[in-house]
Amino acid sequence: MQYYDEEAHQFLADRYITGECPHCHAEGAYGDQCEKCGTSLSPTDLINPKSAISGSKPVMRETKHWYLPLDKHEGWLREWILENHKEWRPNVYGQCKSWLDMGLQPRAVSRDLDWGIPVPVEGAEGKVLYVWFDAPIGYISNTKELLPDSWETWWKDPETRLIHFIGKDNIVFHCIVFPAMLKAEGSYILPDNVPSNEFLNLEGDKISTSRNWAVWLHEYLQDFPGKQDVLRYVLTANAPETKDNDFTWKDFQARNNNELVAVYGNFVNRALVLTHKYFDGKVPVCGELTDYDKETLKEFADVKAEVEKLLDVFKFRDAQKEAMNLARIGNKYLADTEPWKLAKTDMDRVATILNIALQLVANLAIAFEPFLPFSSEKLRKMLNMETFEWDQLGRTDLLAEGHQLNKAELLFEKIEDETIQAQVDKLLATQKANEAANYKANPIKPVIAFEEFEKLDIRVGTVLECEVVPKMKKLLKFKIADGLENRTIVSGIAQHYKPEELVGKQVLFIANLAPRQFKNGLVSEGMILSAENFDGTLAVTSLLREVKPGSEVK
């Protein structure tokens, strides 16, 4: 049985069916997954399903499909994942365990669609492969097309380590469905690890390209020229490795200014500038080491092993943090030793301090290479070194005594508030556009008798005076000409209009509303009628042509 759209006259693919998620009850969940809670679904799981094509309620129709018998693979999958891969990330392991504990069911791998890869078996005319059965095969065929003579090394050699980097919405396909396909064929290796990230949200909302709620790379590169590494750094620092995380422009600014500029960039700049000042830009001689020098050197001696260990278990966030700790060590070392003060009395000591600082700088160029490649290249140019090898990380003789450095430049630049506000404003504009596009009027209130409506005395008034109410920022005080006696009306629209915008305008007001007294003793003798827009802004009702004050609305 499969959902069928009677208006569109076609069977529906999973992504063309939406409804309420049975788990988190979010609206707009797809037939294969809820994007709010990340749960994998079947179309029949949805509450109140509807077709994404016509909006109509689909019906179930009988059709013939081909299935992947996942139930027959449950035994070895349970052992392979739950017993042999306990080192997998908790979010990956946990989701796989949940699926296995519920019991695997056969999964349809064919669809009734007019597009897709035809099912290559007899009797399957008009059927196409389900995209998540077809797509993983594409990984293999792409490798074969790229490397026709050696592709099997990548997919069949037991010495090859196969890693799948994915998002959490694809865990079940990469850990259960695809491995079952590989195992059933028999000659392919299985993934050694599937480091899946959770979702990275944007300013508290799910990233969505269809809603334009995203940071577009080409726009970023235009707005932040030369700052590719800043985005790389922030994305790695906020990587949702085990739980959902949030990208905000304020955090982006803070990490750039407080970490890249104030820590990494500041240390590099001080070390190079002082070397140019005291030693004409040449690496000075390292003299006798103090205990503090030895402690500092010991702190970064093991950095290579530590970063490699973290990278090998896919803890990229912690690995980058370890690299940044090198810069913190360097900053503290210069702050504690104060070579600018010693320059007056002990240049030999200054030479040793700056030699150690420069060796640290050179190590930073290597340690940050996987994370900030553009900045590492820029730093190597300042150090006048064409390249460093990863194996050299942790050494204290990367720069030879007397080696000439190039001119020092700022490695990173401070990002100002107005630059960040421009990005926030861009997103706010997108948010408003989305709200406008998705606006739906509230349901009509219960029907009332005409006699009830007649009790309201709605009239036209001319605004004679308008002013802000002191100490009450939301209120405007109006003096209204109503054709009888002038009256005072207080309205909560100060955040939507300036007083001078309304003076002389004609407005609609309820004339027979009981007077209302405010805490400051002010009495309002009516209510000015306003319409509330989708975004909460208020628009005072007005007339197409002028009438006498006091005219009744009929």
The residue fraction in helices comes out at: 25-40%
Helix count equals 17
Spatial extent as radius of gyration: 34 Å
Shape: flat
Enumerate the spans where pLDDT stays under 50 for 5 or more consecutive residues.
Answer: none
What would you call the structural class?
A: alpha+beta
Largest sheet: 5 strands, antiparallel
On the 0 to 100 scale, the average pLDDT is: 93
Number of E-state strands: 23
Main features:
five-stranded antiparallel β-sheet; three-stranded antiparallel β-sheet; 23 strands
Describe this structure in words.
The protein is an alpha+beta fold. The protein contains 17 helices and 23 strands. It has helices spanning 74-83, 90-102, 131-146, 151-156, 171-185, 217-223, 228-237, 249-279, 291-301, 303-312, 316-337, 339-342, 347-367, 373-383, 417-437, 450-454, 499-502, and strands at 2-5, 10-11, 17-20, 29-30, 47-51, 59-61, 67-68, 107-108, 110-111, 128-129, 166-167, 196-197, 200-202, 245-247, 458-468, 476-481, 487-491, 506-510, 516-517, 523-524, 527-528, 530-532, 538-540. It has a five-stranded antiparallel sheet with strand order 17-16-15-18-21. A three-stranded antiparallel sheet has the order 2-1-6, with no helix packed on it. A hairpin with a 5-residue loop joins strand 16 (476-481) and strand 17 (487-491). It is flat, with a radius of gyration of 34 Å. The mean pLDDT is 93.
